[in-house]
Amino acid sequence: MQESRARLNVAVLGGKRSGKSTLVGRLLVKCNVVNQASIKGHETESGDAKWAWVTDRLQTERENRRGTVKTAQWRIVAGDFEIILNDTPGDVRLRKNTLRSAQGCDTAIIVVPATLGEFEDEISPSGQLRDTLVMAYSMGIKTLIIAVTKMDIRNVAFSKDRFQSISKITTEFAVKVGYALSSIRCVPLSGWTGDNITSSSARMPWDQGSCLLDILKDNVIPHRLDLRSVRIPILEIFESHDKTIITGRLESGCVTVGDKIVNAKNPKQRFTVESLETRHSPIQKASAGAIVGMAIPRNPSMKVGDVVGVANDSPLMCCSQFEAQLLILRLPGHRGLVPGYTPILNIHTSFMPCCLVSIGTVYDRVTAKPLQARPNVLRAADTAVVRFKPFFPLAVEPFHENPALGRIIVLDNNLVIAVGVVRNVCY
Description:
It contains eight helices and 23 strands. The protein is of the alpha+beta class. The strands form four sheets. The chain has an eight-stranded antiparallel β-sheet, with no helix packed on it. Strand 7 and strand 8 form a beta hairpin. Helix 6 packs across helix 7. The longest helix has 18 residues, at about 160-175. The chain starts with 5 loop residues before the first strand and ends with a strand. About 45% of the residues are buried. The mean pLDDT is about 85.
């Protein structure tokens, strides 16, 4: 079997109580991915959480309505087109899980609650909406679907004015982050009642737009880097008595059963790809954009966050230091960023402590003109070239060569401090 369908990878992002899992659960049932009989079983046990339980399957997720802990991945097939949905955690304490799962997605559904008070909390300084949009943009997600949920709630009652107000504010946030207005679509819906998910809603006759499923189908599949060297950041690892199965998104290149792969941490050690699969279906060859599982001879040295490639491709190595261009969004506490500061950097599926070795030039964010050379400290809203040194082996590549391995999100106590790209790498 070989891949044949065009694939759209979708990240479902939003706050902890925004209604993400309820929305995804209802969509899966309407698309016949999950049968109605299982919903009746959930209703008996969970009451009003029956739709969320479609995706929240872990006991820890269901106890006391804790919400999504581990990303659930689902596949919707529509003819020659398939949609891979990633229902990610909304809890800020689980941000690493969210970032790992959303890496490499083509579009994002930003779930925003219409409920009075909940939306206002989301856009407040302590809310998550701004960070969610920044993370989506920084991860290279090209298009957004603003899904305004809970339109059925009594204090909203499918109000056109409420939807338009939320859409306007959220779109303005997204444009400030960097999104083009043409790349943003807004849709009012209700995950609980199923309105406007797979067909237009009679309760919202004022909405002349498409339903959620049609908007997903309208997305253009982005160009894949099939002709580049193979790069697969490891997302998960499973061990058996004689095999190691590594899973991750094939960011560039093509991999075939029988290929010799190498880990950037030890490029001299080679492993044969014994089998390949995607979505539990065996394949002989996978191309860029696919989420693949590869079985290789048992190798305990493979870790989540490592990057693997094919031995005969261009060299794959870990860096000693790298130069990055950063935009500082906020400061950790009241201090600025100074050499010696050691945050956690999210690059592809890796979360790596990295030391800020030096600060180069600060540039004007709009004109890109140099403003100051080698300042002692960086402040909020500064754009600067800096140099980082990772504490452990880390594979990165310049953004212009491989965007997926060159995007940076700087975290401090799970808060997004800065975003940027890798400019140069020292080996």
